[in-house]
């Protein structure tokens, strides 16, 4: 029987902002979802207030149609808010949503973690989120069932979620490798310059050939 670590440094005792990446991603998503629902509620409240103010100017048929189709309006609003929330957050927030800022996470391109998300990458990642949303949020659990911890938005947009600690490490490694590459290039250029300054004198074969040609000419 495996005993659980109950020491003060055990991972299960750590706060969500310092725990594993899956835990932090989960809490981050729920914060983002709360922000989306709150925004939707505020918009719907404004819409309902507008209807109540000007409802008396409409006919009974129009009033019945508006009140009976309210759930469709709310579904449309939450879909637009959901898509716009993630797209604008990733593209204009440097790969961070409010939830990811709170739990010290960020989204970066897989091929180069030091770059910011492009417009196309942000759009593709948001499309991945939206596809998970319309399928009932089930596909959001995909990172829990694969070793790479990648979800559908990660795969679809070729991006990844990193903790701020991991991101700093990757940035420092990239800068070190860049400096090493620059130094190697400078050393190579210096070697070429040194080689061009070398004066190559002809060997003994040249003089022997010249002497033989002079004898034949004589």
Strand order of the largest sheet: 1-2
- Tally of contiguous helical segments: 8
- Structural class, by secondary structure, is mainly alpha
Overall outline: elongated
Compute the number of strand runs. Answer: 2
Order of SSEs: HHHHEHHEHH
Q: Could you walk me through the main structural features you see in this protein, from its secondary elements to its overall organization?
A:
With 218 residues, this protein is mostly helical. The chain folds into 2 domains: 11-163, no CATH class; 171-217. Helices cover 65% and strands 5% of the residues. The chain contains 8 helices and 2 strands, in the order H-H-H-H-E-H-H-E-H-H. The chain has helices spanning 21-54, 60-68, 70-92, 98-102, 119-134, 152-157, 164-197, 204-217; strands at 105-109, 159-163. A two-stranded antiparallel ribbon has the order 1-2. Helix 3 runs antiparallel to helix 5. The termini are far apart.
Topology overview:
Layout: H1 21-54, H2 60-68, H3 70-92, H4 98-102, E1 105-109, H5 119-134, H6 152-157, E2 159-163, H7 164-197, H8 204-217
Antiparallel strand pairs: 1-2
Helix pairs in contact: 1-3, 3-5
Q: In brief, what are we looking at here?
A:
This protein is mainly α and 218 residues long. The protein has helices spanning 21-54, 60-68, 70-92, 98-102, 119-134, 152-157, 164-197, 204-217; strands at 105-109, 159-163. The protein has eight helices and two strands; from the N terminus they run H-H-H-H-E-H-H-E-H-H.
């Amino acid at each position: 029987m495996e005993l659980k670590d109950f020491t003060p440094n055990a991972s299960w005792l750590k706060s969500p902002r310092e725990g594993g990446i899956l835990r932090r991603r989960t809490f981050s998503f729920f914060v983002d979802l709360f922000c989306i629902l709150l925004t939707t509620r505020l918009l719907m409240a404004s819409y309902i207030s507008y209807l109540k103010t000007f409802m008396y100017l409409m006919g009974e048929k129009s009033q019945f149609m508006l009140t009976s189709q309210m759930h469709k309006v709310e579904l449309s609003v939450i879909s637009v808010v959901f898509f716009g929330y993630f797209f604008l957050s990733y593209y204009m927030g440097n790969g961070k949503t409010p939830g990811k800022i709170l739990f010290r996470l960020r989204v970066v391109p897989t091929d180069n973690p030091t770059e910011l998300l492009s417009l196309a990458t942000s759009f593709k990642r948001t499309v991945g989120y939206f596809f998970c949303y319309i399928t009932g949020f089930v596909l959001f659990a995909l990172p829990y069932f694969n070793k790479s911890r990648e979800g559908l938005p990660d795969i679809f947009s070729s991006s990844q979620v990193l903790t701020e600690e991991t991101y700093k490490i990757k940035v420092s490694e990239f800068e070190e490798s860049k400096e090493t590459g620059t130094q190697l290039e400078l050393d190579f250029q210096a070697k070429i310059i040194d080689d061009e300054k070398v004066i190559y004198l002809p060997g003994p074969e040249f003089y022997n050939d010249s002497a033989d040609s002079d004898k034949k000419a004589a």
